[in-house]
Specification:
Elements lengths: L3 E5 L8 E5 L1 H12 L4 E4 L1 H7 L8 E4 L3 H7 L4 E6 L4 E6 L2 E7 L1 E3 L2 E2 L3 E2 L2 E3 L3 H6 L9 E3 L3 E3 L4 H7 L1 E2 L5 H7 L2 H13 L2 E2 L1 H9 L9 H12 L4 H7 L1 H7 L20 H11 L4 H9 L4 H4 L1 E2 L5 E2 L3 H15 L4 H12 L9 H11 L1 H16 L6 H20 L13 H6 L6 H15 L7 H23 L1
Parallel strand pairs: 4-7, 14-15
Antiparallel strand pairs: 1-2, 3-4, 3-12, 5-6, 6-7, 8-11, 9-10, 12-13, 16-17
Bound molecules: adenosine-5'-triphosphate and magnesium ion.
Length: 471
């Protein structure tokens, strides 16, 4: 196996960028060439290499027909991922590589899939079916960079541009609309004028695209470094896939805590929050219920009482529709439901919230709160950030001291209560909850003797009440 690399000059005067094929990709390409076929690295891996980023995976396109690929690699582990469309996955060193025959997509039906694909021996035809110029480049160490649509120049300039007529390309496959804004957000690129106009023009075609395909692009978009500006500029696209977001767009909050509309505030929170898909979703949905819960006083002051419950309901509906998994749905809705809690720097509150949410979710909630207050009126930021920090320190203290915050940690158990004479049944659970509350409130120490004494008192009281009723 050999290391192949090459220097590519994107533009006169620009520093050269090198493409380094991983050994396994070079090996596969060399074997295809030895069998008499053409083979190139193509798409995302070429784009990412030219940008100096490490590609996630290396796709290879080839003039070999699917059966010819199989023949050429009959000694390797093959997975027939999409032979009809020309795609074969070859495993080398436990790593999968996708090999696809050069192809021309036939006519598209219903804005999603080509009716049929035709194989071709012409690389340029294969490149012309790809979505954006920056994704339509191929590379071979001997042939160099093959770039018929000036993708390298667009990469240099930071431009997303469709290959061919933008409108036609979005009509063929509307997912490209989401891919376009996703790449703009991930790479921090601008969208070229014709492509941008066509995105908006064709947005209703997104209704035909499956939830799963949209969800994948949405996650990548929200995690993109340039998400704030893209979401702001292309909010119409978001309104198409999530119409529930529309009422946020221009909603003035009419109070001194905020300097942005609900939408702009939301975008700032998305920008500020730590970069994980879960947290980005919490940020996206946290205030989505505000429009429907807004009330304005006679003096013109806006309130949003209990908006977190409306946000929770909408988040649940949208996340289900977009087929997010249960863990994501459950976590996001629970963080959103609790995001209006006012943190106090007390061990009591830390214990209660740890009990209610668990450590993992409480940590996520703290992250949302930090991002939320940093996106409000800056005159309150310092004070509010300090309050969250003070609470977070208390939480760490409670966790470090393993202070009591769950029934498991309570110094008495259900068995102890039965031994005291309490009959088996729901009252046992209720009594344990009451004891836990008293411990978390610091009204009782978490000590067995004290808790048993208190439980006995509760039991007596109950017996008296029941006795009283009887007589
Ligand atoms: P990522 O880094 O997110 O994987 P990528 O560009 O590699 O980005 P893939 O979805 O892996 O994206 O697709 C690989 C290549 O296939 C793209 O670079 C592009 O050339 C082509 N492609 C993918 N989806 C489409 C599409 N919907 N329409 C046209 N070409 C597409
Ligand atoms: Mg890829």
């Amino acid at each position: 196996m050999s290391h192949c690399d090459a220097i590519v000059n994107l533009k006169q005067g620009a520093p050269p960028v090198s493409i380094v094929l991983p050994n396994q990709a070079a090996y596969l390409m060399n074997r295809l060439t030895a069998c008499g076929h053409k083979a190139f690295a193509v798409g995302g891996c070429v784009r990412d290499s030219l940008m100096g980023r490490t590609p996630q995976d290396w796709d290879i396109c080839t003039s070999a027909l699917p059966d010819e690929m199989k023949q050429c690699f009959s000694d390797l582990h093959l997975v027939e991922t999409g032979m009809k469309h020309g795609t074969l996955t070859v495993i080398v060193d436990h790593q999968p590589f996708e090999l696809t025959t050069f192809r021309i997509d036939g006519e598209y039906q219903d804005g999603r899939h080509p009716k049929q694909v035709r194989f071709t021996s012409d690389l340029k035809q294969d490149l012309s079916r790809r979505d954006f110029t920056i994704n339509a480049m191929a590379y071979h160490p001997d042939a160099g960079l093959i770039d018929p649509f000036s993708g390298a120049a667009d990469l240099q300039e930071g431009i997303i541009r469709c290959v061919g007529t933008a409108k036609k390309r979005f009509e063929e496959d509307a997912l490209r609309i989401m891919r376009g804004i996703r790449f703009a957000a991930q790479l921090g690129f601008a969208i070229e004028e014709e492509t941008a106009a066509a995105l908006i023009d064709c947005k209703s075609l997104l209704d035909r695209i499956s939830a799963e395909r949209i969800r994948i692009e949405l996650d990548k978009l929200l995690c993109g470094a340039g998400a704030m500006s893209v979401l702001s500029q292309y909010r119409e696209i978001i309104g198409q896939i999530i119409p529930e977001a529309r009422p946020m767009f221009d909603l003035d909050q009419k109070n001194s805590y905020h300097i942005y509309t609900v939408w702009d505030h939301t975008l700032h929170v998305i920008d500020q929050i730590k970069n994980t898909p879960l947290l980005k979703l919490c940020a996206f949905f946290h205030d989505i219920g505000k429009p429907e819960m807004m009330t304005v006083t006679e003096e013109g002051w806006g309130h949003f009482y209990r908006h977190e419950l409306a946000s929770e309901r909408i988040a649940d509906e949208v996340l289900s529709r977009l087929k997010y998994n249960n863990h994501t749905r459950e976590t996001v809705t629970s963080i959103v439901r609790n995001h209006s809690i006012v943190f106090r720097p007390t061990a009591k509150q830390a214990r209660k919230l740890l009990h209610k949410l668990g450590e993992e979710k409480l940590r996520l909630l703290i992250e949302l709160e930090y991002a939320d207050v940093k996106s409000q009126n800056p005159i309150y930021t310092q004070e509010r950030v300090s309050a969250i920090r003070a609470f977070s320190e208390k939480m760490e203290d409670v966790l470090a001291a393993e202070n009591c915050f769950s029934l498991r940690d309570l110094a008495v158990s259900g068995r102890d209560l039965i031994a005291l004479g309490m009959p088996q049944g729901p009252e046992i659970g209720r009594t344990l909850d009451r004891l836990l509350d008293l411990v978390m409130e610091e009204e009782l120490p978490n000590e067995r003797a004290v808790l048993l004494h208190s439980a006995a008192e509760m039991l007596n009281l109950q017996a008296n009440v029941i006795g009283g009723k009887k007589s």
